[in-house]
Amino acid sequence: MYPGIAVAQELLEADAAARIVFACSDRKIDRDILEPTGLAFVPQPVRPLPARPGQAPGFLWSWLRSAALARDLIRDLRPKAVLGLGGFAAGPVLVRAAGKVRSALLNPDAVPGKANLHLAGKVQAVFSQFECTASKFPPRLASIVRPVGCPIRRGLLGADRAEAAKFFDLSEELRTVLVLGGSMGAASINTAMFALAGRLDELAEAPISTRGDGGPPGIWQLLHVTGPSGEPEGERAYAGKRFRRRVLGYCHRMDLAYALADLAVCRGGASTIAELAATATPAIVVPYPHHRDRQQTLNAEAMVQAGAGLCVQEEADPAATAEALAGQMIGLMNHPARLEGMRRAASGLGRPDAARQVAHWLAGG
Fold first, then answer.
1. Residue among 129, 123, 132 at smallest CA distance from 147
2. For the chain, which end, N or C, has fewer CB atoms within 10 Å of the first or last residue's CB respectively?
3. DSSP secondary structure string for all residues of 284-353
4. What CA–CA distance (Å, rounded) separates 253 from 56?
5. What's the pLDDT tens digit per position in 15-45?
6. Are 300 and 273 in contact (CB under 8 A)?
């Protein structure tokens, strides 16, 4: 969703009178993301491709209703262009627009999913984040894949660290670990961090420098975005601990979160990887382990190879994941020069003009 918002902002920057409508899913998280932007959106009942035969009737019903809604949207809005943001929610409108409206698809993950593999045959351009993605599509479609990077919101860049510290009620002087698992959080990352609460208390009092730039000595603090369901458990897990922290179920000001972060612990979603690179935030990536194509591990490869990130694979035993994560975190916490080197490496990976390039194409360029 966020890459689409970034493209919408670029379109409005070029033409303030442009009318932009998101055809999103009817999940609450889509509404939560879009409502603060003021952009128009139409929820669809469409569902993902069914994993089991018993889910087929529900999928078919939701598809037929969404297809009718897409028909009405194309007829009533008469759009100049359609951009699919990837995944199942893009299907009904792109299928209806095929052959009638200039259409493109975003594929920010290194490996396209089933929906994008199908939908790519119905568009004129596929905008990817990674060079390697073209080889993952059928050869007949490789020529339409354009590796421009993943669109990120303009407002994500240039935020002030002092403002960020005040906003989150944290310290500007302390080095900050930002923990996040995407819009819905990541239960396994939460579990690992909660298990490490006692060790974080010890580390927080280590006399290490605030940043690798000769700043004043200080301790670590934590900004943990748990996802809505993890917030109460986070408050309980960290209760009574000495280290400074802020626990949030959802963060509407990721620009400030990145401005304060000296290290991120996160999943390897495509948007997250793009934002880490754009904000030059070193990261320990814990990829989601249940994608057959190792999608998030592949997303993180560019950061790892450049020396801007580390990868910790999630284990079946939560305690083993926590121990592996602790080992990497402690190594970085106690070596600010290494962390600063990772930041410099990350700064060379950003593609801040991706949203502008996609918007330019949609506008007919």
1. 129
2. C
3. EE---TT-TT-HHHHHHHHHHHHTSEEE-PPPSSHHHHHHHHHHHHHHHHT-HHHHHHHHHHHHTT--TT
4. 39
5. 999 999 999 999 988 998 899 999 999 999 9
6. yes
Q: What is the CATH number of domain 158-347?
A: 3.40.50.2000
- Burial of 186 by CB count in 10 Å (0-12 exposed, 13-18 middle, 19+ buried)? buried
CB distance 156 to 279 below 8 Å:
yes
E strand or H helix that includes residue 35: none
**How far apart are alpha carbons 264 and 261 in whole angstroms?**
7
Position 353, amino acid:
D
Q: Which two tokens stand for residue 140?
A: 């007949």
Which sequence spans correspond to the domains of the chain?
2-147, 158-347
Round to whole Å and give the CA distance between 160 and 146: 33
- Cα distance between residue 37 and residue 222, in whole Å: 27
Give the sign of the dihedral formed by CA 209, CA 210, CA 214, CA 217: negative
The architecture in CATH of the region 2-147 reads 3-Layer(aba) Sandwich (3.40)
Give the residue ranges of DSSP H helices in the chain.
Answer: 2-14, 28-34, 56-77, 91-97, 114-119, 161-168, 187-195, 197-204, 231-238, 254-260, 270-278, 295-306, 318-333, 336-347, 354-362
Contact 129, 112 (CB under 8 A): no
